[in-house]
């Protein structure tokens, strides 16, 4: 692919959006002066964490080296400097979300997750309350469900469809669809008592942008839920009471923060490292002051009380919203760094950042959608494309010419070798993952029973992906980053007459001169099989391939005497164990095999696990030594 001609074509289509032409620095200048460390790296995980700039960190260090910041709970001049910078930071955050300080307050937390936890544990739940959340939500939002259920409230998920645009003059009924699966209430079996219509408070949570697919959610949902809940929920028992709305802006705030002057959400959460890379471990809860009055806080600490008596049940809370909810001394040095992060965001503007990043994402989507194998089969399946508006995230999986899936971990490992940093898995968003991958409850439970958990290498189970590949772009991403990634996909996963380097589901053996001649840059030097996850493998000259990879590779696991799955992270003894198959596995099919439960004694010198074929009664011994 010719870089110059490809970029010229890209600029013809996206030139008005790409590159910050009207800003003090364009994208090429930003990369050359602020991100020299990216010269040999293509960083495509901005949804996970964006990057800090060099001038930003220089300003932070200069500030800390020239100013003495004391504990803001003290009364010294150094403490007053901290108090002043914290107050300015709160105002800067509210301005970023276009929130009036008369209507909203900024509560600093250790991150978006801590802000969500604060909402969950202080929300005025009752047995009449409901917690409704969109299917596409981060685990940290789903965790609020535990607080609701523990108080006897109802909890249920909704799928928000894109059938009709949600507008002021249009009915939203077709856009908000209840799922068929309500979460079972612990106290009362999920059924509201007759006649309970009192002053119950309900909470609806949705993300401004899905961190799995990049789908952007319509902020008009706030008004619809608050004012038309009975119509949207079809007069069900769950529409009663007053609805408050929470927006998880952790993913969306970097390019399109919610406008709280127009869309009156009650709670908004985010983390600063998603905005400008540094500081980490710091986030905020933007809370509507009327909603803050409803929150029921039990614990108090030094900074949250005006007075307390040690040997009497007496304390008096402070009156300010921020001081009421910020336990202990806030991270004032990290808060002092916020102003330096906002400088480049304000210089570029979020609207320009949004246009820049989404233009790159659109280019990648178009390229991936067009990729075909030589037999005409499409390579990539992209997720979330039916949404009317997408953020700067592209989530997808890839297929071989025969229709079998490439494992996302395979993609990630090859990308790392190519200097490309991306993310794979479900991205802590189980609802979106199941929805877009077409995984039923039975599929999910079957995968869990097979041992699949978050962060493991089981990327294909029962012929289906358990997660996806995600690339996401930040304000400093370039067209060249995107093109290098597209080239990587084409060179490694598209099977054509000129590129046959990708492994096919057939037996291979050493030597492989034929493959080396077909793709001179790619040749196989060894084959290592790892039958037991986390144990050492063994090398062979030839080995059968299946649709999921090497036969028997990572097929078995070790368990402790308590039933815990053992990995190298949990036990260093695992890595010291070698293993080999004592019988020829080529004679047994995967479907015939089944596991004979046996506790593995990790202290023994040699342990043999026996596998038995259900049809023929043949035995395979797997020696662990």
Structure overview:
The protein is α+β, with helices and mostly antiparallel strands. The protein has three domains: 3-48 and 351-493, Alpha-Beta Complex (Aspartate Aminotransferase, domain 1); 100-296, Type I PLP-dependent aspartate aminotransferase-like (Major domain) (Aspartate Aminotransferase, domain 2); 527-624, no CATH class. The protein is 30% helix and 20% strand. It is built from 19 helices and 30 strands. The strands form ten sheets. It has an eight-stranded mixed beta sheet with strand order 2-9-8-7-6-3-4-5, with helices on both faces. It has a four-stranded antiparallel beta sheet with strand order 12-13-18-15, covered by helices on one side. A four-stranded antiparallel beta sheet has the order 27-30-29-28, with no helix packed on it. Strand 10 (305-309) and strand 11 (314-317) form a beta hairpin. The longest helix has 21 residues, at 350-370. The chain is globular. Residues 163-174, 188-197, 501-520 and 583-625 have low confidence and may be disordered. This is Molybdenum cofactor sulfurase. Residues 524-585 form the Molybdenum cofactor sulfurase middle domain. Residues 42-167, 244-482 form the Aminotransferase class V domain.
